[in-house]
Design a protein that fits this description.
Structural class: alpha+beta
Radius of gyration: 22 Å
Strand order of the largest sheet: 1-2-4-3-7-11-9-10-12
Number of helices: 8
Number of strands: 20
Order of helices and strands: EEEHEHEEHHHEEEHEHEHEEEEEEEEE
Largest sheet: 9 strands, mixed
CATH class of the largest domain: Alpha Beta
CATH architecture of the largest domain: 3-Layer(aba) Sandwich
Shape: globular
Length: 380
């Protein structure tokens, strides 16, 4: 049995401060496939942790039965630093309170950091080239001298992911249907993941603009492929951000269902020699993230939604009313907030008091929106 709990102490940035990162490894160390699964990089997003709470015993039992055909690393709550950040009874697990940086932004653009090391080292065999690229990345990570706790945490997590063939980053939205973010070249290869997860949408983008964790490895291999057109560079990692509904959706029944989907995905890939369970219904085909409208308000006020999650809307249809909270008709005036595209409502916000510029919904359409093409695609 190889199922092992690891606990790494991260020295804090202030006197007497330290935190412990817990993660599990399991499966044959010499397995041909490596899997990295993590949850709660945004530490205030717990549905993924609930899913992994229910997945871990199934993986432990499969490991004990000798059924694992992959080496699997699981970080049930990958950001203990974010778990510690709160103010006035409000958890601020999305941002590093020292720098204000979103924990899922500004991950490194790896290819420029290793490009010089790859010169003259790639050849005609794609598998060998993949090993060369991975080794260069691991060497770069090992050469770093982290100063702060978050730098140490990022390098530790990135080292695990960089060695993996499948990288799943579990998140959630505010109030949302299940969906996936991934890179376009990874579809339809990850359609089976979308099916097992039972998503309402798979949203694809090469570069959403924020340096998100799930884009680090696809960007690395894409840039290596473009820089070396005469040498084969495989897609070295299937990576995705899995959005498990909304923040309030941490319940045992949902976690059990989500864990069953993850187990079924791994088993259907032959990475667990076990029955994956009934084949799920096909999920919708992917759409460009640029075709999803992030609907924002241009004034502060109180939201009154007219639509529910999953409702289909047309461009110009009111999605919500914004109740004025100041001005000549304070608390009387209602201004309709109109959809800018045809599609369905993927997400809403839980807090109904909103400020100017806040996003209040995502509407998944099929046509790329001119305002979204080539821009910053994320909500923060």
């Amino acid at each position: 049995m190889t199922f092992t709990l690891h606990q790494t102490v991260l020295a804090g940035d202030t006197p007497g401060a330290a935190t412990t990162l817990c993660y599990y490894t399991m499966g044959p160390e010499d397995a041909a496939t490596r899997v990295h699964i993590q949850a709660a990089l945004h530490a205030d997003e717990q549905p993924g942790t609930m899913a992994l709470h229910h997945l871990l015993p199934r993986l432990r039992d499969a490991d004990s039965a000798g059924q694992l055909r992959a080496q699997i690393t699981v970080f049930p709550s990958v950001n203990p630093l974010g778990l510690a950040t709160s103010s006035l009874r409000h958890h601020i697990g999305r941002y590093d309170t020292q720098t204000g940086i979103n924990y899922n932004r500004r991950w490194p653009d790896l290819y420029p950091l290793i490009a010089a090391d790859l010169q003259g080292r790639l050849g005609p065999d794609g598998a060998t080239n993949l090993r060369t690229i991975r080794a260069a990345v691991l060497d770069w990570i090992d050469s770093q001298t982290p100063v702060t706790a978050i730098q140490r945490l990022r390098l530790l997590v990135l080292r695990s992911a960089a060695a993996a063939d499948i990288v799943l980053d579990l998140h959630c939205d505010d109030d949302s249907l299940k969906h996936i973010f991934t890179s376009p070249e990874l579809m339809p290869g990850l359609q089976d993941l979308a099916d097992w997860m039972g998503v309402a949408a798979t949203l694809t983008a090469e570069d959403s603009g924020g340096g998100s964790f799930d884009e680090v490895l696809p960007t690395l291999y894409r840039k290596a492929r473009l820089a070396h057109p005469d040498h084969p560079v495989p897609i070295g990692a299937e990576t995705a951000t899995l959005e498990y509904r909304g923040r309030a959706d941490s319940f045992d029944d949902l976690g059990q269902a989500d864990a069953a989907g993850l187990f079924g995905f791994l088993a259907s890939r032959g990475l667990i020699a076990a029955d994956p369970g009934p084949r799920p219904q096909p999920a919708p085909q992917p759409t460009p993230f640029e075709a999803t409208e992030v609907l924002r308000v241009d004034a502060p006020g109180l939201l009154a939604y007219r639509v529910a999650l999953g409702d289909r809307v047309t461009a110009g249809q009111p999605v919500a009313d914004l109740i004025a909270m100041d001005g000549p008709e304070a608390f009387l005036q209602r201004t309709p907030i109109l959809a800018g595209t045809d599609g369905f409502v993927l997400s809403r916000v839980m807090g109904k008091y909103v400020r100017r510029g806040d996003s209040i919904a995502k509407i998944v359409g099929t046509a790329v929106l001119p305002t979204r093409a080539g821009g910053y695609l994320l909500e923060d």
